[in-house]
Design a protein that fits this description.
The protein has about 170 residues and is mostly helical. The two termini are about 20 Å apart. α1 crosses α7. It has 8 helices and 5 strands; from the N terminus they run ααβββαααααββα. It is globular and about 50 Å long.
Amino acid sequence: MIRLKRSLCVLLCAVAVFGLLNIMPLKADAAAMTSSVEMVDVLKQMEGFLLYPKWDYAQYSVGYGTRCPEEKRAYYSTYGITEEEALALLREELNDFEEQVNNFIVKRNLTVDQGQFDALVSLSYNCGGAWMNRTNTNLFRAVTSGGKGEDLIYAFTLYSTAGGKYEEGLIRR
């Protein structure tokens, strides 16, 4: 079963990496790159919809896996969150990660296309943006050196755990 999960993880990461391996990338414009509608739709589908806040390893999550604002947790616990509110929270959190990824791209003088940008924002949404400052990690080195194939897949698989355990949602993504 573990071997099957690992194989599935590698296969799904390989599919995700193809979005990072576009042969004719476009130069990133730090002020202009935002998540595509398609990426937001996939993220919503992968996360699912949480009507009420739920403890999720290090935070309460609500809506589409978004950090639940502390000041609204009691309200959402009682009445739930609407899909419109959930989408607004998701967009707000994605905006922060888009800015971080855009700054990372500019600082490292990288060239990315929309698929690559979406993959980095999606990863950051799920795992946080700290990877962009950890220059000694496999993921940082793979992204900044234009890594491809197994090196990039391996680097992404290192971000498939939460609480020390492989998580289906992270593996699928």
